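dumping the sequnces here before i forget
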Amino acid sequence: MGFDLNRVIRGRVWKFGDSVESDAINPYYRYPTMEELKQHTMEVYRPEFPREVRPGDVLVAGRNFGCGSSRPGLVLREVGIAAIVAESVSRLFLRNSISRAIPIFVAPGISGIAEDGGTLEIDYPRGFVTNTRSGAQAGISRYPAAIERIYACGGLLQFARERYLREQGSGGNGTTA
Amino acid sequence: MAQTMAEKLLSQHNLAGEAVSAGDFLEARIDGAMCHYHAAEPMHDLALEAGFKDGLPRVWDPERVYVLLDHHQPTLSQKLADENALVRREVERLGIRCFHDSEPGIAHQMMLDYGLVRPGELVVGNDSHTLGYGSVNAGATGITRADMLYVLLFGELWFQVPHSVRVTLDGRQPDYPVAKDIVLHLAGEHGEDFAQNMSIEYTGSLVPQLSIDSRMCLSTHGVELGAKFAMFDADQKTHDFVKARTATPYALLQADQGARYAKEIRVDIDRMPFMVARPHQFGNVAPVDEVRGVRVNQAQIGSCANGRFEDIEIASRVLKGNKVAKGVRFLISPASQQVYLQCLKAGLVETLIEAGAQVITPGCGICQPRVGFLSDGEVCITSTTRNFRGRKGSNRAEIYLGGPLTVAAAALTGEIVNPREVLHGL
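..and the predicted 3d for all of it:
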């Protein structure tokens, strides 16, 4: 499932602080199935989150979002989070999100302009996030072309398969197609 | 232009063949891939998701892929047993030569124990603590599972060249390990993301005195500071360690004089107190005296951060002829079978068991909710990697991080104390 970076996203904000960690996002050691994870993601910060999050909501965080392990944040997409916007993102969480074409944006200053429960509009092509009530804006850091290509492909898995098939030649290997 | 270690590493591995500098993007050639294969998102499932209906069609070089069943050994559930069985079939199908199947231990320690990583190499692993191999002058970092699928197919991966921070450790090595205290001090003083996306180069007068064990702790914990790499220059200790384990030739990685650093940090080891991270963040750091008197239910030594010989040796020294405090569960998990054997031969295990400690099978379990769960309201002090809420079970438990000496002192007294109170002559 890919994501078109050029699509404008508008959603209700769930606001979190700094250093939101990977075990809290994805406590899979305690809750090994996706159905269980959906009931528990982010509960250590906000117990009501799994219950009250709605499809299309936007997650806003401070610095170092997703710090900790190399666990991916797929569960956030599964509960309906349409995009993540943070002051800064830990390197592995950022790589994970890029790899799986999950919309994630680094927008320094976002904590200052976003309000919990308010509405944000994320316009990557134009390069800013807007609080629709106050009109306040924060700029989005642009991804290099190589990363935009991974998003356009629908993620690194699809990117890898396309490259593999291309290199195998048009005949391809039927058993792997 | 003068290059940092990271710039040199990635220039040497740049498929485009050009020199790169901080901020540049590149496709890099990978020398080694440490792969859990299962854990969280099994590689086979990712291959299916990518559209390879029979699973991964190949690995780019069966000699350079290292599969270690570390997180799930021995298996603690039917599901994991079935997953491991699948991995065994996959390893055989793909022709992967290096497979640690029936040996418990932490992959990172085994990579180093068995000489699977050499100075100057670019090694990736689908585990955040892969940075640990920087201890032996390798460029090593954690990648994601999807990244690993790409690496397994092509032996290549995209990187952004990191800016570098030079951390100068000056002072005298005391008669006990201080690597954990140094990392906690750095996180407390400079923020737990001060090296976000950066490459740490450790240098200073302490470094030649640091054991390889301590360097492994410092490099492994680079990720807790946000880093992409955390590296040491090679010295005689490095050569002795590596050459005792592999005959594979290697080339050293060294920064140029005049290389540019985005940050310079200096730590005076002689004036650094014992440090502790309070719940529930790595950077929530205080000198041990500020949390003195906190009663503990469980104390732990283990993990890829601090489960090595010197960590267990200091615990044995503290507990020799003594008993673990009543009501405290003291869990010790050597990082690997090789470390375990080293401890056994030195008589450490005997001392620790006589004192009332529990020795746990080597592996990652002690650092996760896998063995040694905590109940509501319980307190644990541990030398493992993370103190996140719920990391050891209950969300209402509290986890403190400390060096192995601080942990052993707490196991002995039943509360967090300054180790100087229990180990005289420090």
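Chain A touches chain B at residues 19, 21, 23-24, 26-30, 32, 43-44, 63-64, 67-72, 88, 90-92, 95-96, 99-100, 144, 146, 155-161, 163-164, 173, 175-177 (CB under 8 Å).
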